[in-house]
């Protein structure tokens, strides 16, 4: 088996396990998710900071739109790891543009499932590109590790990352 096939098999296996753990009773076992990206994130335990940031940036309507979108979603722990005061500063109304730029850097305007991931630069919703790389079976988005994949929403998919990724200034 080639390394690429092994990685795809590993990602697919992890994706299935993670997707089942994130599935709610509403769409457990179904192939079509009923909740949009914001609804899926809001119903998960580990995205409260992300949801608060999306609300502060007025991106709820966008992420509830038709899409499709791929969201690289940082966990609450990832936001907590930012330098002290950074999150509080970003959530202030006067920093809405900066927060929007950061959050839209986590969004790809297409649905990209784990099995379709390949290395290279990918355009994000803010116009900048994130670098996708695979190192030893681990998928990285810039320097953030993808720790869960293929969490389905009605308008896209969420891949969980362990760091907040920042666009180059």
TrEMBL record:
Q: Which GO terms describe its cellular component?
A: extracellular space
Report the superkingdom from the record.
Answer: Bacteria
Annotated keywords: Signal
Which Pfam families is this protein grouped with? Fasciclin
Where the record annotates domain FAS1, the positions are 34-165
Q: Which InterPro entries match?
A: Adhesion/Biosynth-related, FAS1_dom_sf, FAS1_domain
Q: Which residues form a coiled coil?
A: none
Q: Which residues form the signal peptide?
A: 1-25
Name listed for the protein in its UniProt record: Fasciclin domain-containing protein
Organism listed in the record: Pelagicoccus albus
């Amino acid at each position: 088996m080639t390394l690429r096939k092994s990685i795809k098999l590993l990602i697919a296996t992890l994706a299935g396990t993670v997707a089942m753990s994130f599935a709610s009773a509403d769409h457990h076992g179904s192939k079509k998710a009923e909740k949009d990206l914001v609804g899926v994130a809001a119903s998960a335990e580990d995205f409260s900071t992300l949801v608060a940031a999306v609300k502060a940036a007025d991106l709820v309507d966008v992420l509830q739109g038709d899409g499709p979108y791929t969201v690289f979603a940082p966990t609450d722990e990832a936001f907590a790891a930012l330098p002290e005061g950074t999150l509080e500063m970003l959530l202030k109304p006067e920093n809405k543009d900066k927060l929007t730029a950061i959050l839209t850097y986590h969004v790809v305007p297409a649905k990209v499932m784990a099995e379709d991931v390949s290395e290279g630069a990918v355009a994000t919703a803010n116009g900048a590109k994130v670098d996708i790389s695979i190192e030893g079976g681990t998928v990285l988005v810039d320097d953030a590790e993808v720790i869960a994949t293929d969490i389905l929403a009605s308008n896209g998919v969420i891949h969980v990352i362990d760091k907040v990724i920042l666009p180059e200034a």
